[in-house]
Amino acid sequence: MNRNELDPDAGPSAAFGVRLRRLREEHGWTLPELGERMDYSGSHISGVENATRAATVKFARRADAVFGLADSADSFERESRRIHQGVLLEGFPEYVGYEGRAVEIRLFQIGIVPGLLQTPEYARALATSDIRRGSITPDQAEERVSFLMQRQATLTRDQPPMLLVVMDESCILRPIGGPAIMAAQLEKLAAFAELPNSVLQVAPFAIGERRPFHLPVNLLTLGDRSLVAYAETHAQGHVDRESTAVLPLLAGYHHLQAESLPQAASVAMIHEVRKGTP
């Protein structure tokens, strides 16, 4: 295996790799020997040590088990999660922390189905597209999908939040991942609308300039009735808890709901689009 002398200050992945190599060498293990203990190939271990392969949470957990670091402040899993959050938009990890405690979640999405309602296959199709463009690695793509599935768990907790979703019509018309994946995604949306803690609406193209938002919007109501807003561009995300900034977004959301199709009509539109898929 090629040995690359990394500078731990070169970045989080380099620091992870340097630390992994140091611990391996302190135990006197070769790359294949550590790989055997972790159930990974020696070349995979080498890739992580040289920062050419991402350290997934699954990989980090196995390293923790081998080196006796599980649940410790210095665990590889903690380090891996910090690295993973580093590839997310600024502000999004903070938002997710609030999302898990929210009693009401209001979402508006353009172009793609909101993450909390995506099927794993739909989410993987989006991640695969990012891999082809070179913006993320395959390991990061898998981490992204895994992270999304963890977020979706908030919808099945003992006291799930009320989830109100408005989707631009483009969300259901834009084909993602091929007909079969899109058909399953549309079926999931229709099933979501039947849940007692959900409201699903489509904002049709026909509302034109009356649509108040031109970017996705996330609004949370926490247990103390305080509000949290999250909005993002392609470059960054921003969390806001100041009422002077959040209340206008809430008012805009109410206007959006008034202009959008009622839930029954929205579901009918989803079923009509579904007829065009296998």
Detail the topology: elements first, then pairings.
Elements: H1 12-26, H2 31-38, H3 42-49, H4 57-67, H5 76-86, H6 92-99, E1 104-109, H7 120-133, H8 138-152, E2 162-168, H9 170-173, H10 179-192, E3 198-203, E4 217-221, E5 227-232, E6 237-240, H11 243-259, H12 263-274
Parallel strand pairs: 1-2, 2-3
Antiparallel strand pairs: 1-4, 4-5, 5-6
Description of the molecule:
With 278 residues, the chain is an alpha/beta fold. It folds into 2 domains: 8-86, 434 Repressor (Amino-terminal Domain) (Orthogonal Bundle), CATH 1.10.260; 92-274, Endonuclease, Chain A, CATH 3.30.870. It has 12 helices and 6 strands. Strands 3-2-1-4-5-6 form a 6-stranded mixed β-sheet, sandwiched between helices. The chain is elongated and about 65 Å long.
Terminal CA distance reads 48 Å
CATH class division of the largest domain: Alpha Beta
Strand segment count:
6
User: What is the average of the pLDDT values?
Assistant: 88
Instruction: Choose one word for the global shape.
Output: elongated
Uncertain regions spanning at least 5 consecutive residues: none
What radius of gyration results from the CA coordinates? Answer: 22 Å
Kindly estimate the percentage of residues that lie in beta strands according to DSSP. 5-15%
Strand order of the largest sheet: 3-2-1-4-5-6
The largest sheet is: 6 strands, mixed
CATH architecture of the largest domain: 2-Layer Sandwich
CATH topology type of the largest domain? Endonuclease, Chain A
